[in-house]
What we know:
Blueprint: H1 2-21, E1 25-27, E2 30-32, H2 38-71, H3 110-118, H4 127-130, E3 141-150, E4 156-159, E5 166-168, E6 173-175, E7 183-192, H5 200-205, E8 212-216, E9 222-226, E10 232-242, E11 245-253
Antiparallel strand pairs: 1-2, 3-11, 4-5, 4-6, 6-7, 7-8, 7-9, 9-10, 10-11
Helix pairs in contact: 1-2
Amino acid sequence: MPAFVGTLWVVGVVLLVGAVIGQAVTLGGTELPALTSVRLRWTIAGIGVFALLLGSLLFAQNLSATSGAGGGHVAEPPPSTATGSQRPSSPVTGRTSPSASPTPDPPRDPAASQDERTEDPPVIPSPSASKAAPARPAVKARWKGTLLIYSNGAPTGWWLDQVPPAQAVIGDLGLECDCHAGEVVANAIAEWDGPQAPTYQQCSSVSGQLARRALAVTEGTKACLRTQNGRLGSITVTSVAGPYEMNVEATVWDRG
């Protein structure tokens, strides 16, 4: 096949050269007479190109077949001459190296394996859960002190949004008249039954119940109230001098 391909290339080259120069050509032992006709020269040139292309195609096919046959062979590694009872020698000292046989694993306890399989995976807290909610600032008392609630037949009381509280006709906390003994009236009030005076948070938790305007009280009564401007407060009746006279310990917080 290579000889035939070479012949095609030689013929193609001769035909192309003869067609180009138009004179007699001798190349590689092949002689081509002079070509005087233009049409004949084009025909000879076409035959030469065809011969070159055919030779190149045949050469490529032959080269591909040869590469495929050679690439399919995989060399096998030489067989090892070492037997199972021999140990490789050290390249430096010539001494035999210790056996490379693996050390057997210690026996496992079946009960321990069962425990490992049934153990719950560790719980990883989420970033949102690890962040504690910021503490709300403590609510400061706007005013705290003792008030005298007294009536001689006319309404009387206190405005608790002012510091200190100002006297009023009933106001946020007072007496309506001398006709309801032991009863105070307020803008909004609810009794607190805890052992201590209520805090701001406790009064805030019952703020939805602050709808009554009158509350019967005795010494020791505790209550939450709301002022006209929406502030929360608390009172503790400390003493009762008569049906229409009493002292209360009052606290008004700054947050409404």
